[in-house]
Amino acid sequence: MEMTIHGLIMKFFRNHPNQWVKAATVGDWVREQYFNTHGKHPANVGVNVNMLHHKGKLISNNNGYYKYDPDFEREGEFNDFSEADRQAIFRRDGYKCVLCGLGEQQGVKIDADHIKPRSKGGSNTLENGQTLCRKHNTRKKDYSQTEAGKRFFMNIYKAAVEIDDTEMIAFCKSVFDVYEKYNVDRHIRRPDH
Ligand SMILES: [Zn+2]
User: Fold this and answer.
1) CA of 46 to the centre of ligand 1 (A)
2) Is 45 helix (H, G, I), strand (E, B) or coil?
3) How far does residue 82's CA lie from ligand 1's centre (Å)?
4) How large is the angle between the packed helices 5-15 and 23-38, nearest 10 degrees?
5) Are residues 40 and 67 in the same domain?
6) Statement to judge: residues 55 and 22 lie in one domain
7) Of 10, 96, 149, 193, which sits most exposed with the smallest number of CB within 10 A?
8) Phi and psi at residue 90, in whole multiples of 5°?
9) Distance from the first to the final alpha carbon of the chain
10) Which domain holds residue 99?
11) How far is the CA of 170 from the centre of ligand 1 (A)?
């Protein structure tokens, strides 16, 4: 049976579950297998390993090593609405973004969004789904990053307090002031108040 590059990469990782493997090591094996069955060399294997990471199939340590965790992959399979539910959400929302009202009639691409994100325990139910246009869906994803940013500065603040770095403490306080001024992520308590 002839296998694709992705198929061969996953075959390698399934045979080495829960182990950190260098992309180059996988590449050597895949190149050999691919050549034996296809009679030619495959396209860049490293790029394809990284692609599988971005698809949620492999875990990366951001240092050229990848790991296959069977439980992680299984979780990933349930990470989105079924196609039937997606269509039901679109139908319910009239095939248009619930925020701006633009949709397929205006030639705008729409997505089914999790109101409460999956990463925060939101479910794949119709009630937790809403139709968003690409712009608003992207914006929502970006917005969740302000939250990560605030937590990031909270860590810096705590470290600065420990070594009594007054300049960095003042800097962090100013950052928290900006969050407050624009009413962003108020549910996360700033550490200095
Ligand atoms: Zn919109």
Assistant:
1) 36
2) helix
3) 22
4) 130
5) yes
6) yes
7) 193
8) -60, -45
9) 64
10) 83-138
11) 38
Cα–Cα dist 112/125, whole Å: 11
Residue 119 to residue 39: CA distance in whole angstroms: 43
Distance 137 CA to ligand 1 centre (A): 7
Give me the number of domains the chain comprises: 3
Rounded distance from Cα 9 to ligand 1 centre (Å): 38
Alpha-carbon dihedral angle through residues 35, 40, 43, 49, given to the nearest 10 degrees: -10
d(CA 57, CA 68): 7
| 69, 17 contact by CB (below 8 A) | yes
C-alpha 94 – ligand 1 centre gap (Å):
13
Per-residue pLDDT tens digits for 37-85: 889 998 889 999 988 887 778 888 878 899 998 876 655 555 688 889 9
52 and 18 share a domain?
A: yes
pTM for the predicted model, two decimal places: 0.43
CA–centroid distance, 70 to ligand 1, in Å, is: 36
Residue 21 has pLDDT above 90, yes or no: yes
pLDDT of residue 188: 86
DSSP-derived secondary structure letter, 97: -
Q: Does a structural domain hold residue 190?
A: no
- 17 occurs within a structural domain: yes
Residues 70, 22, single domain; the answer is: yes
The two tokens of residue 119 are: 């990463």
CATH number of residue 61's parent domain: 1.10.10
